[in-house]
Amino acid sequence: MAESKRILLAEPRGYCAGVDRAVETVERALDKHGAPVYVRKEIVHNRHVVDTLAERGAIFVGETDEVPEGAIVVFSAHGVSPEVHRTAAARSLKTIDATCPLVTKVHQEAKRFARDDYDILLIGHEGHEEVEGTAGEAPEHIQLVDGPDSVDNVTVRDESKVIWLSQTTLSVDETMETVRRLREKFPELNDPPSDDICYATQNRQVAVKAMAPRCDLVIVVGSKNSSNSVRLVEVALQNGAAASYLVDYAREIDPSWLEGVSTVGITSGASVPEVLVRGVIDFLGDYGFADVETVTTAEETLTFALPRELRPARTAK
Ligand code: SF4
């Protein structure tokens, strides 16, 4: 008898509260103001989401100086530095800030510890938009630590006044290793007041850890520039999956990946709409993967209110 082929589906996966809010922000802005609505950077790091919003009339730009004076611009979920707010104001742009509240929380921490004259070691990936935004809050106090191997290069002014903060979408395990190395070097290193790696990033990694040891292959749906999606591939490989690949769409799956495979795990990054996961399940169904078992490690109920400019007006009593 042929070995049964099955799919394990990680839960939670896909959209987090911050992405949901950011995507809805652009949709509501288009409904309210009509096209075009300008968006600085990709609203979230997902090809499908960006293409779909572009079809509806969103225009994605690299910087605010590409936006016509006086027009509406939405800032992405990854956050922006104060300098971006200043240049937008100088061009009289009408801004709608879709920065995830959990990124804003890290900005507030950066401002607070900079005010108290700490050296802030920001663990994150060089060049990522979120890191650029956070570092821009206090460039003279913040230095980037891009993983455990960067620790050797870190120097501080006063070893008794050092704190680490982080990007929200990192690998929890790798970040803890970076912190361990930093603490070896600076024993008085302070921890952030609360976790900077957000609940959604952590939950998706925990679900993959639970699923990966049972999988011959883990397919992560997500875009290559999505930090939390790329981390899920790493987590799958580090926790027992024989192979793991990142795909934007089902059509990117190479059928040779499925040779000799009986269990495929599927998850998706925090910026990935569920329709793309369904596409992968359907694709695998054509190759005989009919059984789908959900591996649930947490339930998520968090939601965020839309930016003030887009909330329904209150009616007077
Ligand atoms: S991944 Fe986390 S920080 Fe990023 S938008 Fe989602 S909830 Fe916010």
TrEMBL record:
Residues involved in (2E)-4-hydroxy-3-methylbut-2-enyl diphosphate binding: 45, 78, 128, 168, 226-228, 271
Co-factor: note: Binds 1 [4Fe-4S] cluster per subunit.
A GO biological-process term: terpenoid biosynthetic process
UniProt KW Metal-binding keyword: yes
Pathway: Isoprenoid biosynthesis; dimethylallyl diphosphate biosynthesis; dimethylallyl diphosphate from (2E)-4-hydroxy-3-methylbutenyl diphosphate: step 1/1; Isoprenoid biosynthesis; isopentenyl diphosphate biosynthesis via DXP pathway; isopentenyl diphosphate from 1-deoxy-D-xylulose 5-phosphate: step 6/6
List of catalytic residues: 130
Gene3D superfamilies: 3.40.50.11270, 4-hydroxy-3-methylbut-2-enyl diphosphate reductase, catalytic domain
Tree of life domain: Bacteria
Residues that hold isopentenyl diphosphate according to the record: 45, 78, 128, 226-228, 271
InterPro entries: LytB/IspH (IPR003451)
Keywords for this protein: 4Fe-4S, Iron, Iron-sulfur, Isoprene biosynthesis, Metal-binding, Oxidoreductase
Cofactor(s), by name: [4Fe-4S] cluster
Family of this protein: Belongs to the IspH family.
Record function comment: Catalyzes the conversion of 1-hydroxy-2-methyl-2-(E)-butenyl 4-diphosphate (HMBPP) into a mixture of isopentenyl diphosphate (IPP) and dimethylallyl diphosphate (DMAPP). Acts in the terminal step of the DOXP/MEP pathway for isoprenoid precursor biosynthesis.
PANTHER family: 4-HYDROXY-3-METHYLBUT-2-ENYL DIPHOSPHATE REDUCTASE
Name under which the protein is recorded: 4-hydroxy-3-methylbut-2-enyl diphosphate reductase
Species this chain originates from: Gordonia desulfuricans
Origin organism lineage: Bacteria, Bacillati, Actinomycetota, Actinomycetes, Mycobacteriales
